[in-house]
Every structure is written in C-alpha cells, then in structure tokens.
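We include the entry.

. . .
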Amino acid sequence: MGDAATPTLPNFTNQTASVYKANIDAGFAAADRLAWAFAPHQQDQGSPAPDMTLRLEAGTIFDGATLTEVAAQSTGAIAAPSSDPRIDRVVIDKASGAVSVATGAEAASPSPPAIPAGKLPIAQVAFSVGQTEIVNSDITDERVPAASGGGFPSGTLMLFHQSAAPTGWTKDTAATLNNSALRVVTSTAWAGGKQGATAFDSVFGSGKTAGNYTLVEADIPSHTHTQQIRPLASGSNNPETAGSSDSAPQNMGETASTGGGGAHNHTLSLDLNYINMILASKD
C-alpha cells in the first residue's frame, strides 16, 4: 500500500537537479498503474531471454462489479511460421485478464486475425519464417484505455437505437424478440423471450377494428313497447279521444319488426408513433 505520488511537471530550467529528478520519478509513479498495465514486451525472465514467448506486465481488470489484480504473465511458446510471414494477436480475457494468443494466417502480406469475443487486444506480433525469438521491434502495442470494456459486466443487456450492436456488444437476433413491445415492471424481469401471442404491428396501426359482432337478445336491456288501440267514437270515423267515457282502450298490439340482424364493428385509431430498438449483450 501507499504507492501514490503527487505529480509535478519536471522543468529543468527552474528546478534544481534533485527536484527535477524527484519530479520525473513522481510523474512515472503516478502513471505507473495505468501506463504499465499489461504492457507487452520481449521476454526478460528466465534463460534464454528473449525467446518465443511474450511478457505482459501486471494489470487490473474491472468488470463493473469486481476489481481483479492480475500478476505479470507470459504467453506460451509461439511457433514460427513455416512458409510465409504471419501476424498474431496477443489478447487478455475481459473477465480474468488471462493472456492468450490468436494465431493469424501465413501470407506474403499477412493481416492480423480478428479479436476474439470476450477478449481485449494487447499487441500484434509480426513473425518471419524460421524466427527463433521475439524482440520488441516485432511487437506493436494495441492496448486500449478502460481494460474493463466500458465498466459493464459481460452479459449485461441493453437497448440501442441503431441497427448494429456497438463494438464489444452482440446483437440478440432471436426471432421471438422481433416485432415486440416493451413493458416496465417493478417485479422480477421475465427472461423467457417474450410474452403474449400477437405481433406489435398486428395490434397497432391505422384502420384497426374491434372485430365483427352481432347483437343477440341477451345484449339488449330489458324493455317493452306498449301500443294502445282505441275504438271509434260513436257515429264517427275517428278514434275516441283520451278521457272519453265511451269505452276504455282495447287490444294491446305490437310494433312491427325491422332491422337486418347483421354484424357491426368499431374502427379504432392505434397508429401511434414508435422507434425501433435493438437488444444487445456485453461480450
């Protein structure tokens, strides 16, 4: 513990020799943890050195939850190409920091191999046919800042408003997720793909209807229609008037039936605005 230093820019024009040297030492001490993390170089351990292995300085991996201190390490012996030059990639695991080598293809003008999923680039190593040792001039440093891969643990799921997943993320292309809506819950998220049975654009859009339906007797409120028929007044072709004492209304009749008994629907406007998103997981 206690390896921090207060950095002060060294300036030989106005600092004494001892202060100038101390400031250089303090500056390197302050930069040591980040600048030297997983620094690749020719082998300097054991005998013979250098050889066909690569040495990495100690470093730190942070996966968004756990800080892992990784000790200095070496690759295994790397075989030289047999017919044409080759470029290999030295990488570390994003979770553990363990070193490994992605072997390139031999070619007259070789290209480096792709960075494997779940790995971070450390260096490219150029090999010639029959090579017997790796020296610093063969090594191209490829380290990038934020060895944690952006602070998100591997497997983290996030939504992105773009067609392709960002570098370091893998797009989820499961057919069960396509054309689905999102729901926010305060309970446990359901991780089984999706729920429901109808696609998003089958529910939402213009010209949607509630479906055809024919009313039946049970759908109509209970009611009656009363029709009173009065007899003709004595000596007249006109019905008796209300209040006449000749006779009371007679004969309860029914109104004539009408209507075709057909189905009907209700048109709904569900043509809402929306944006397309993708779901991707951290490598």
